[in-house]
Amino acid sequence: MNPLVQLSDLGQSPWLDDLHRDLIRKGDLKRMIDEQGLRGMTSNPSIFEKAIGDTDEYKDDLQKLLAAGKLDDMAIYESLAIEDIQGACDVFRPLYDKTNGADGFVSLEVPPALAMETSKTVEEAKRLWKVVDRKNLMVKVPGTTPGVPATKELIGEGININVTLLFSIGAYEDVVEAYISGLEHYAKKGGDVSKVASVASFFLSRIDTVVDKKLSELSGTQKDEGAKLKGTVAIAWAKLAYQRWIELFSGARWDALAAKGAKPQRLLWASTGTKDPALAPTYYVDALIGKQTVNTMPTATMKAFGETGTAKADTVESDIAGAKATIEALPALGISLKDVTEDLVQDGVKKFIESFDKLLGGVAKKRKELGGTKAGD
Length: 377
What we know:
The chain is 56% helix and 11% strand. By secondary structure, it is of the alpha/beta class.
């Protein structure tokens, strides 16, 4: 059996971290759902930038928008992106219905420039939710300090949220509190909490990239100790986050919501494409299989796992003592995981903003190539 299909049997949902028009129109997305066990999809500015700026898949649609007099690059992007998101949501809708809203989601990101503004994030998320108008949409909200109250408010309005850019367990705990508080608010005003879904996206390979660089810079007796930890920190950190997930979604407070049909906010493993060529392409998938989790994979990672991956039950719960030892070894080597994760959040927001700017630049380039010019070009 295809290991991707086996993941669902083991309680984990494989999602694809990619979205472009031909994937929908040529039927590939439906085939992946039917034949490979695909259960959801995420998008981000980099994905749309590559799809719109580097392919001809959108040429005809761009020409139609330009002929209609639409010249604003942001408006063009949004028209194209929303059509893609709606199309993907429609392809996933049978799965969403079959699983009673447990799977079949497609994510669309709030513009990253709003990451540090709670009220504007809420306003934009509500607008996107209304414009896309699909029950199986998840609006992506960054897990920044201002993003936490935004998440609470949006969940309290019954909007599905994918909280992104989570690197620390402390930030994750804040997000869980926002989710549970939001559900309590929604239930109090008569909302059906069984219709609300959320994931908390915990980023992995970026952690190892930064920590491994620090480990490589060690000298003397510490160098050998550091070498043993290379490539192990993100998975250890994720395993400890999953242990917190088990604890946070238990007890009287959660049981009261569960009795009303509430679903736990699932941990989603993101940034699962390996950046270190010494690691297997399925490294961050094989090691973190667990019940009620999601792994969103780039196309290459998903292909690799389908061909060579190992679908083994509950690997995310294996060797928790070893995971704790790995994290506890870092301070003695002069590495602060707190500092690393805080820097990664800031860097993540910056990179998403840069990607979004590059995306709009790609749209402008395509627009000009097709003869759509405006004052100032």
